[in-house]
Structures are given as C-alpha cells and as structure tokens.
Amino acid sequence: MRTLDGARVLLLEDEFLIALDAEQILQELGAREVDTTSTLSEAEERARVGRYDVALLDVNVNGQMSFSLAESLRSRGVPVVFATGYELKDRALPDIDPALCVSKPYTSERLRQALYAALEGSQP
User: How far is C-alpha 41 from the geometric centre of its chain's CA atoms?
Assistant: First the structure.
C-alpha cells in the first residue's frame, strides 16, 4: 500500500483537538477507517484485536511512552509514525527514523510524507 486509500489507521493521541485534526487529515488522505484512542492501555487492546495498515502514535501519552506499543505493532508488520510535541530539531527520538516522526502541531503535508515513508518502508 503506497497511499492511505482504504487504509485502516490506529491513532493514539491524548489531546482532543489534535486527535480531531489528525482524523480529518487521515480521512482526507484516503483512510477508510481511523480508530482513535486517547490512552495507551486502550490502544494496546485495540492493537491486539484489530487489524491496521499503519499507526500514528503520540510519543508521550499522559506521561506514558508509546514505544512498546510501536514495537508490538512493528513485530506484526504494521508501520508506525510517531507524533510529538517535542522539538525534534534539537533532539531526535532514540532509534527512530526522523522521517517517521512529526512535530505537533503538524501540517497535513508533513503527516502525509511521514505516513507514506512508513508505508513505503513496510513494502516487501
């Protein structure tokens, strides 16, 4: 899958307005389904039972980091993009490709680029 056309997306975001914005952008990019959650535990449960083409995960969700969820998703072949309020110019996230990270608030173009990069990287 090279675009989001028909994609099922897991969205983990604890800020309500940012989640709404992300949902709208994802739908405009062609996502068929956006499964949004605001807690890490709920996202972990949905990831266990759901089938997703890509995930957009807030790095820090109410003080909990989403890296373990990302690893779980990646182990099942689900590409992951991270969103963070941290300034990435000054410090990169450890062991994470900067192309797969977006700073909040993000633009629809930057989110599109990161999602497409993640999907391209997951191609066999």
Answer: 16
